[in-house]
Each structure stands twice: as C-alpha cells, then as structure tokens.
Specification:
InterPro entries: Ribosomal_uL3, Ribosomal_uL3_bac/org-type, Transl_B-barrel_sf. The relative contact order is 0.27. The chain contains three helices and 13 strands; from the N terminus they run ββββαβαββββαββββ. It has one domain: Translation factors (Elongation Factor Tu (Ef-tu), domain 3, Beta Barrel), CATH 2.40.30. It is extended and about 70 Å long. It is mostly beta strands.
Length: 207
C-alpha cells in the first residue's frame, strides 16, 4: 500500500488533455516525509510504518523523543505518526517518501482534520430548514420539539441538536490523482480535501 504525508494547499483549477477545467487540491510533500520506524507482524504482531514529517524544533524536543530518533538514525521530525499497513515490504528506515509513489489516474483516500466551526446551531450543523417567519412566529432558528413527554422522559441519544461542529478526523475516499510533479514535490488530487490550507493530510493508495 502506498502512503505519504503532505500539506494541503489551496484549491485551484487545471486543464486536462481534453481542455476541461478540473478542480484540484495540491498536496505539498517535498522531501519532508521519512520512514522513522517499521512494525512487523513477526516482531510486533502487526504491520505498520512510523512516518515523520517536517523538521523538528530541537529546543522543544524532550529527552525520550531525542533518544528515540537517535536510535532510529533519523533526524527529528515535527510530526510522528504510525500508519497500519498490509505489508511493509519495500520500505526501509530512513527512506524519504516522495510524490513519485503515485501516478496520474491512481485512486487514493485522503485523511485530514476538518475545519473547526465551534459551537453551531442546528441549521448550520445539520441543515435544518427554518421555522415560520410570519404570523407572529418567534421560532425561526430554534430547536423545536426534542421528543416525547413523560415516556421516555429524556432526549434520545443521537438527536440532531446544536453543538460542536467540525474539527474532526475525516476520510474522503476514492479521489483521483490528476497530476504529479516530482521536481516540485507536489501531488494534485481531483476535488476537495478536508481541512484548511497548510494542514497536514495523509494520502493512502486504495488497496
């Protein structure tokens, strides 16, 4: 399975070979994604890669993590994340992963953190329609009924109500790689990707 970390860029448009405008999101990888450690089924009971991304601020690196990177023989990274794999064959500790892992036409899944919108009302969070706006009604954006009366006597779990909206881990599946630019370290993916520009995302090949 192909896997790589990158930074989400701002959405843009490119033209395909037929001259059609395609909305794309650039993923900036550069030379910042590196394999820090491997987990194998034989030694650990499962297959996984520990991937590092970005350059760490050495002043903020604590002693345990400093020793961990020294043992791995890899320069300390800003982000360290473990990704489960079907197999870790073909990957080595210290190997830098680039966008050349992918090619145009590949189908990928993108994992990212959505934009946080804070405490939001039901209309914004769940797409409710508004209440009546005439004939003296004061219930324009309110919740309304939340259930029955004395039986069951409480609001059932899972009810669509106002609350925290966004800032959650989301996977967008089956996106298509449109263009790969190895010299710039940029991957162009068709469509939208979760989060705001500059946020870390994980790109996984399907299968």
């Amino acid at each position: 399975m192909k896997v790589i970390f990158g930074l989400r860029g701002t959405m843009t448009q490119i033209f395909d070979e037929q001259g059609h405008v395609v909305p794309v999101t650039p993923i900036e990888v550069g030379n910042d994604c590196v394999v820090v450690a491997k987990r194998t089924r034989k030694n650990n009971g499962y297959d996984a890669l520990q991937l590092g991304f970005g350059e760490a601020n050495l002043k903020r690196l604590n002693k345990p993590m400093e020793g961990y990177f020294k043992h791995s023989g890899v320069e300390p990274t800003r982000v360290l994340h473990e990704v489960r794999m079907d197999s870790t064959e073909g990957y080595e500790v210290g190997q830098h992963l680039g966008v050349d892992l992918f090619k145009p036409g590949d189908v990928v899944h993108v994992v990212g953190q959505t934009k946080g919108r804070g405490f939001a009302g039901g209309m914004k969070r769940w797409g409710w329609h508004s209440g009546p706006r005439t004939h003296g009604s004061m219930s324009h954006r309110r919740v309304g009924s939340t259930g029955a009366g004395s039986s069951p006597g409480h609001v059932l779990k899972g009810r669509h109500l106002p609350g925290q909206y966004g800032n959650e881990r989301v996977t967008i599946k089956n996106l298509q790689v449109v263009r790969v630019e190895p010299e710039k370290g940029v991957l162009f993916i068709k469509g939208a990707v979760p989060g705001y520009h500059g946020r870390l995302v994980l790109v996984k090949g399907r299968g």
